[in-house]
């Protein structure tokens, strides 16, 4: 059995050049996200990866208490698909190498970007979608997608993320988007204590309104 008391949060953060205008807000929103997770019951470890047209793991498998302050340095283009492919495959391999009792009972992958894919060469939308669906179905991973000034529901669906778990946010409302994601993760961690198969509840209408995203098209 995996460790039902342990959550591993994987965060994939866009650091492409367009993030410069919301650099400080993103850093503050991430700090608040981590602080809220520290108050939740159960153990939690964090892996942070960031990407532009290259991919970098900032830190891996850190206890919440040891997560450092985010220092975002925007640059480059947006290789979302290649970066997401690497994060999922490398993280999956690392977890598979652990003894089963040391593996987290809850795995959440959160993706935050303000731009559209424009620089990937190895992974396609259908390939990423198949990979995400496999991780969800075979291993119970949960995925969140946060997209600034775009139809995040449509983009999320193109890579296999449920509409309920995709959030469009305005660039001026980064903190609200981060707060909504943090509450969802917190709720999941709480629900898993009594129901190991609990799923992310999905963003509420109030959370979507606070984030300032466009309404979903009919």
Automatic annotation (TrEMBL):
Say which domain of life the source belongs to.
Bacteria
What is the protein name given in its UniProt record?
VWA domain-containing protein
Spell out the SUPFAM superfamilies in the cross-references: vWA-like
Among InterPro entries, the record links this protein to: vWFA_dom_sf
Region feature (Disordered): 194-218
| Classification via Gene3D superfamilies | von Willebrand factor, type A domain (3.40.50.410)
Per the UniProt entry, what species is this protein from, by scientific name?
Nostocoides veronense
């Amino acid at each position: 059995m995996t460790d039902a008391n342990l959550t591993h949060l994987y965060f994939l953060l866009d650091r492409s050049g367009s993030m410069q205008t919301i650099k400080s807000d993103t850093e503050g929103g991430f700090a608040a996200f981590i602080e809220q997770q520290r108050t939740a019951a159960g153990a939690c470890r964090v892996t942070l990866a960031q990407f532009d047209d290259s991919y970098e793991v900032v830190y891996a498998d850190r206890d919440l208490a040891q997560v450092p302050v985010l220092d975002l340095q925007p640059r480059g283009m947006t290789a979302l698909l290649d970066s997401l492919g690497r994060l999922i495959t490398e993280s999956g391999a690392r977890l598979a190498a652990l003894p089963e009792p040391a593996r987290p009972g809850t795995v959440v992958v959160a993706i935050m970007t303000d731009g559209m894919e424009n620089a990937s060469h190895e992974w396609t939308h259908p390939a990423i979608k198949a990979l995400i669906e496999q991780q969800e179905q075979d291993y119970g991973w949960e995925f969140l997608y946060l997209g600034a000034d775009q139809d995040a529901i449509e983009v999320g669906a193109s890579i296999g993320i449920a509409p309920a778990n995709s959030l469009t946010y305005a660039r001026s409302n980064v903190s609200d988007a981060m707060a909504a994601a943090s509450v969802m993760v917190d709720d999941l961690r709480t629900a898993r204590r009594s129901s190991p198969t609990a799923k992310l509840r999905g963003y509420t209408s109030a959370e979507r309104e606070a984030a300032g995203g466009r309404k979903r098209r009919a």
